[in-house]
Amino acid sequence: MKRLAAILLGGGLFGYGLAWSGMTRPEVVLSFLQLRDLGLLLVMAAALAVTAIGFHLAPRLRSTTLLGLPFSHEVKRMLPGTVSGALIFGVGWGLSGLCPGAAVASVGIGNGPVLIGLAAMFLGAYLQGVIAAGRPSPHRPLDRPV
Amino acid sequence: MSTATGFPFPHGITSYLGGGLLIGAGLVVMYLTLGVKAGASSFLSSTLTYFTPLTAERASRQWRLLFALGLVFGAWLYAWSQQAFFVTAVGWWRLGLGGLLVGYGTRLSSGCTSGHGICGLASFSRASLLAVVVFMGVAIVTARVVLLLGVTP
User: Fold this and answer.
1) Which residues of B touch A60 (CB under 8 A)?
2) Is B62 helix (H, G, I), strand (E, B) or coil?
3) How far apart are CA A102 and CA B64, in angstroms?
4) Which of these, A66, A96, B19, B56, has the minimum number of CB atoms within 10 Å of its CB?
């Protein structure tokens, strides 16, 4: 129950912030990518500052989380797909103004057409998963159950 | 509302900074409770494990799905309280083709705007820094080219 409340609070704050900052509107994101309004940089800087403090301070103050779970110390490593994936993502982001979190949250502001983008994202992720599964290389570290 | 000014922030800075702080607060709540760094794009892979034989991110699929519901609820709460519901005018083919590339690319890169751009950078990951520079640079070029080709919106 506490776990459910925590997830909905965390997701709710994230979603409210995305909507308030305008990031759930593809037009606002595109106005940044076209370099007409640099607000997206402020959004990222503010979010990054808060998150960096949280990620680095929390494990120093407590040995486990408020729910008694271990803190993740994951630091994303360079993988074979890191740069090529970012290239492909960049083309898609510049074309649509959509990224995964903002697209999900955009459903909440009544943005019906974003469902096309979300369905396409699932298809893209599926294709990537199928191709990666057919390849023997270790693609990403194993998940840690929580 | 802050006073509107010209470039670089024609719509002021309040909503950008305020929204960004709340985005960070949401990620910190997830870290302080579940202990996870909750980038958004893994939700695509984890949710696929409910419907397909794919297994990536399977262990985290439940909280990622609930987190996505939280995103929708939070955004709805903003739109409802501020009377800010919105329907994009960006063309369906841009949403569809762009979405396909976003889904494929973020999963190949193991991160997105929140996964690399916020969680990765907040963890001082050099891989994430490189990914952010690449996807942001490419997206700016792409969006400018699309604009120059006269595709609006």
Assistant:
1) none
2) helix
3) 15
4) A66
Residues A122, A128, A132, CA angle at the centre, nearest 5°? 145
**B21 interaction partners in chain A (CB closer than 8 Å):** 17, 46-47, 50
Q: Which residues of A touch B28 (CB under 8 A)?
A: 50-51, 53-55, 58
Give, in order, the Cα–Cα distances in Å from B109 to each of A90, A139, B3, B33, B38: 11, 10, 39, 27, 16
Q: How far is A45 from chain B (nearest CA, A)?
A: 7
Taking the CA of residue B51 and the nearest CA in chain A, the distance in Å comes to 10
b/e burial code for range A1-18 (CB count within 10 A of at least 16 → b): eeeeebbbbbbbbbbbbb
- Interchain CB contact of B64 with A (< 8 Å): no
Dihedral angle sign, alpha carbons of residues B33, B35, B41, B43:
negative
Measure in Å the smallest separation between the Cα of A133 and chain B Cα atoms. Answer: 8
Q: Tens digit of pLDDT for each residue in A88-145?
A: 999 999 999 999 999 999 999 999 999 999 999 999 999 999 999 887 655 455 555 5
**A57 interfaces chain B, CB cutoff of 8 Å:** no
Predicted confidence (pLDDT) per residue in B101-121, tens digit = 999 999 999 999 999 999 999
Asked if residues A28 and A22 have their Cβ atoms less than 8 Å apart, the reply is yes
Contacts of B65 in chain A (CB under 8 A): none
Chain position carrying tokens 């569809």 = B96
Cis ω for the linkage preceding B8 (within 30 of 0): yes
